[in-house]
Amino acid sequence: MSSDPLIALREFETEALAAIAAATNAEGLEAVRVKFLGRKQGRLKDLQALLGKVSPEQRPIVGKQFNEVRERTEQALEARQADLAKPKAAAGPAFDVTLPGEPFPLGKKHPLTQTMEEFKDIMGRFGFTVVDGPEVEDEHHNFIALNIPGDHPARDPLDNFYLSVAGRSADNPVMLRSQTSTVQIRVMEQTKPPIRIVSLGRVYRPDNPDATHSPMFHQMEGLMVGPDVTMAQLKTVLSLFAAAYLGENVTIRFRPSFFPFTEPSVEVDVSWKGGWMEIGGAGMVDPNVLRAVGYDPEEVTGFAFGLGVERFCMRRYGIDDLRAFYQNDIRFLRQF
Ligand code: PHE
What we know:
The protein is about 40% helix and about 20% strand. It is α+β, with helices and mostly antiparallel strands. It has two domains: about 5-85; about 110-135 and about 180-335, Bira Bifunctional Protein, Domain 2 (BirA Bifunctional Protein, domain 2). It binds phenylalanine. Phenylalanine binds near residues 179, 282, 283, 304 and 305.
């Protein structure tokens, strides 16, 4: 403590105010009070002793200063006491609840996801349930059980994404599925007829990307098996489906075709803007396929179809380049 009472008073005030401001709770503040203003041993008491030693001329000045310092310190202490007593929630800046909120951008589902959800909805109304199948498949489900023999051109390694997996037997190699027809087999292997399912998802083929090709795209597979399932029912279901998605006025037509797992087989076209667009393949499940999963072709028949998801969505929205779906350009995605 300085021997000059005025300097000592200023030091006292500076330190006392700093200590008061630094107190974070009532107990801490009380300790500060005792230390600086305590009646018995507080530092102000020591200063009072100093006061007795100043010359009579100086006494009024020092006395006045003493009183002022004490008062300011006491006020600061009271103010801080009140502050610490306030409930916590009242602290912080005032919040105006009448201000308009800040809008924040909401994401949307990808157009293909939206399309597939709509497909599931439509098919659900026709009584088809949705099942999933793996994208990494074995040759058994992608080809053999679908009646696609070893020498069939569709099995060319250059036309498929075969995977090399350590420790996997060479008799049943794995691959990225090239069609969702794999799910027909998986379902029939595990369930007894009657069956009415759809399965939607990605398929992979090593095509060079252009406006109508992509090495990955989406299909919806449909399968209905039961005692009297007919080609007429297939056509009805596909007509109703196309009308539900593209509009009441569309009609469909069948063109004779060939798939190893259906007999007869057809390509399916839908009328569109004065012409026809191909939407996929379909047919009656080949008796060989039914037999391979343990069904009796004398007792049950079935139809199956595989439709291109992108194709439908492109037609409905007038998109002319398939690649737009996979580029994630926000300006494109915002339209949906
Ligand atoms: N899986 C066939 C394809 O991808 C389509 C298809 C499905 C054909 C079901 C007939 C029956 O080309």
